[in-house]
Amino acid sequence: MINVPLVARSDCEVDVHDGTFFVVDVSLSPGPCESPESGWLTLSAEDDLVSLALEVWDEEPEDPREVWTDVSRVLRSETGEICAMEPYTDVRDGFLLLGEPGRSWNVRVHTWADNEADPRERFLVRFWPREAPVGRRTRRSSID
What we know:
single chain, mainly beta, Substrate Binding Domain Of DNAk, Chain A, domain 1, five-stranded mixed sheet, four-stranded antiparallel sheet, 47% strand
């Protein structure tokens, strides 16, 4: 796989409540019955404060170092902008512009907590378009 360029990155620290924090479309406040396709991700952490990096890529990025573990999902962003959000307080940080509104995005969440120099749990959340952007779609054959 060719290494594709990183479009944008946002770093922040997030307070974790009851082992949980969110990455959400900026227009939402997550509810208990909504799904990730509704525009948010629920992330679980063991620490009370975590380091979070949000990244948007043009195409699927290569996996980071082997020590990271990951989970893949899909998220739909109505506004095209996401952020980290703390449960109960609704404090938001780490705003990141993904791109055009109303698109679905592939998401891969990586976590790592084994660094003795910085024992804080770290999260890397990477987004890339679910569909090819207009102008980059594969042309269909007239034989189909």
